[in-house]
Amino acid sequence: MSVNTNVILKKYLQDLILELKKLKAILEFENTKITQGIIDILEITNPKKDLIVNSINNYYTTINSWLKTQEQIQEEINKLIKYALSLKKMIYTQYENTYKMLKKIFAQKKAIPKIQFFKSSFNHKEPILLDVII
Known about the structure:
The chain has helices spanning 3-35, 47-69, 75-110. It is mainly alpha-helical. It has one domain. It is rod-shaped.
């Protein structure tokens, strides 16, 4: 690999790591809000998160295409790749935890509690008037 290609690849990897850190921060924020039970502030779809994921996919595509054509990789680039992979694993774990928490909350919300009316609040001695329109 030429020196120029290594510099460009290193820059792409650093940008990829930055995007992974942004995604990790968003997921951590969402997870803390979910564990606190504050789901109202979360949006169903987060456009910023979608853009970051799309950007990460583009970085992976570009970096992989460069690495396939080159056989020689610098040690520094190898470290950046390993760091990016470790961030990717942490993000996957974060997604998994968020999914489990949302699944628990959904199961709790899905169960509808039965409402019991107090019998003493209804007085059966008095007539009840109903308006029926036909």
